[in-house]
Amino acid sequence: MTDTGGQNGALPRRGEGIRNPKARQRALLIAAGPEEADLSELRELLRTARVAVAGELTQRRPRPDPDRYLGRGKLTELKAAINDSDANLIACDDELAPRQERNIEQETGVPVIDRTAIILDIFADHANSAEGKLQVELAQLEYNLARMRGLWTHLERLGAGRMDGGIGTRGPGETQIETDRRLARDRITALKHRLERTRATRSTMRSERERAHLPTVALAGYTNAGKSTLLNALTGASAGVRDRLFHTLDPTTRSFEISGRDYLLTDTVGFIRKLPHQLVEAFGATLEETLRADLIVHVVDAFAPQQEMEEMIQAVEDVLAGIDAAERPQLLALNKVDVLDAERRRELRFRHPRATQVSAASGEGLDELRTAIEAEFLRTLRPMDLLVPYREGARLAELHDLAGALEREDTPEGARVRARVPAAVAARFERFAVAADGNGASPPTGSAPPPEDRRTDEPAGAATE
Ligand SMILES: Nc1nc2c(ncn2[C@@H]2O[C@H](COP(=O)(O)OP(=O)(O)OP(=O)(O)O)[C@@H](O)[C@H]2O)c(=O)[nH]1
Ligand SMILES: [Mg+2]
Predict the structure, then answer these.
(1) Nearest to 95 by CA among 181, 177, 32
(2) Phi/psi class of residue 65: alpha, beta or left (left: φ > 0; alpha: ψ in -120 to 50)?
(3) Distance from C-alpha of 336 to C-alpha of 331, rounded to nearest angstrom
(4) Which of 224, 248, 266, 359 most suits a substitution to test ligand 1, by most atoms within 8 Å of the C-beta?
(5) 8 Å CB contact between 278 and 116
(6) Residue that wins the pLDDT comparison between 262 and 402
(7) Degrees (nearest 5) of the Cα angle 441, 443, 444?
């Protein structure tokens, strides 16, 4: 399921879009805002949704017009541009209010699709698992329900004008909308219940993993940053990789080893600027759960131009903050350095001195990343000196699993072990603790603060500065 389209120097600049005058859907792109619009991401979204780009029209104004999105004059220009370019669709870079959408459609006679609808469409197309499909359907229903409400208040106003909203104002259109809304709400409730059930199953699986106490690492990052490629490179898995947006929707977890210790690595859905809130809500539970990892590796597409790269980093941090994951320990991995020259690498090292530069494609920097991951965990581990009697074989085996590499010396009384143990389970071994010099029980040695305390000592996102 891999394509080699984006590797080793042959990486296309993002935002080219598809230019094909014969395509079934040919969109004219529009954007309005205080800054000069950059529509490359919208082009990427449309490319992923297999819609061709016929042209673009942007307007600088403090904020979009509340009724028509663009100004009146610009709307006339839009009509002409549609004629000239033979576009049969308008794609807007922002989420539109139902009113704006209706007015543009009325004015131009061409259907309008907004950024949210495009992203929802891509998600619907890429969802594979039962849970993913339920989440997307939920987000789409919420989006459509808001649109029905827009229509509904519009009709309601007409009714009220006619007869003060009293008897005789309930026309057939209104009843139909009421029915549609009720059906949509029923379906939303049913979907939420089904999602809860799927999640309950998954959380059982998770607590089994937690009992095993394997440290967990989650990959987070902008869509197309290379998270799945990195998962594959670190774990030898074969998760789907493609040069398109939102290829991965469902979390995948694989185990991998650093210095004899097993870790779990999870890859999940990518983020994007202006991620539709319906999607954040629908996917929120999955995201939160995934990112409840001990460590988040924030993967960045370092091939992107500087400013765009910083914006993508910020967008990811915003989403992380939105789901209360910003406080988790984080590492920044600047990916795709195989296609960067020495100068750009130097600049990146200067701007992000604590980040690890990697290439998931060529394998460069992966050892540094492993070391950085391990170092992050070592800080949260508690060094212990133990004397474990041989009759406690099960505990000994558990220690080997938990601590990875450990020093062990077999004595007549039992195994003398020096190990670094996850703080969460250290209590289980305290009864075997001995003083570092040798004999006799002692208070727990090396009482490093538990990981939670350490984490709060650090400024949030320290690793990404
Ligand atoms: N040159 C280069 N290309 C890479 C590297 N890592 C990933 N890519 C390419 O970047 C594109 C996206 O990679 P994915 O691993 O699918 O990215 P992702 O972050 O999982 O994307 P989504 O699942 O869509 O959010 C693919 O075309 C990869 O081949 C890298 O280190 N170097
Ligand atoms: Mg992916």
Answers:
(1) 32
(2) beta
(3) 16
(4) 224
(5) yes
(6) 262
(7) 105
Q: Is 169 helix (H, G, I), strand (E, B) or coil?
A: coil
Point out the least confidently predicted range of 132-146, 196-210, 338-352, 383-397. 196-210
Contacts of 161 (CB under 8 A, 6+ apart): none
The DSSP string of 180-249 is HHHHHHHHHHHHHHHHHHHHHHHHHHHHHHHHHT--EEEEEEBTTSSHHHHHHHHH-------SSTT---
Question: How far, in Å, from the CA of 330 to the mean position of ligand 1?
Answer: 20
- Residue linked to tokens 């004595």: 411
User: 59-101, pLDDT tens digit by residue?
Assistant: 999 999 999 999 999 999 999 999 999 899 999 999 999 999 9
Q: What is the pLDDT of residues 303-345, one digit of tens each?
A: 999 999 999 999 999 988 888 888 888 999 999 999 999 999 9
Q: How far is CA 166 from the centre of its chain?
A: 48
Tell me the HSE value of 231 on the side-chain side, using a 13 A CA sphere.
28
- Report CA torsion sign: 25, 28, 29, 30: negative
Residues with Cβ within 8 Å of residue 44, at least 6 apart in sequence: 14, 15, 17, 224, 245
**Higher-scoring residue by pLDDT: 1, 59:** 59
Q: Residue 219 Cα, ligand 2 centroid: separation in angstroms? A: 10
Residue 296's DSSP bridge partners are 218, 330
Q: How many CB atoms lie within 10 A of CB 176?
A: 11
pLDDT digits (tens, 9 = 90+) for 40-51: 999 999 999 999
Rounded Cα gap, residues 189 and 197, in angstroms: 13
Looking from the CA of residue 243, the nearest atom of ligand 1 is: 27
Of 291 and 450, more confident:
291
Q: Which of 27-36, 145-154, 156-165, 177-186 has the lowest mean pLDDT?
A: 156-165
More confident residue, 223 or 380: 223
- Tell me how long the chain is: 465
CA of 269 to the centre of ligand 2 (A): 7
Burial, 340: exposed, middle or buried (Cβ in 10 Å; 0-12, 13-18, 19+)? middle
Burial 401-430 (b: 16+ CB within 10 A, else e): ebbbebeeeeeeebbbbbbbbbbbebeebe
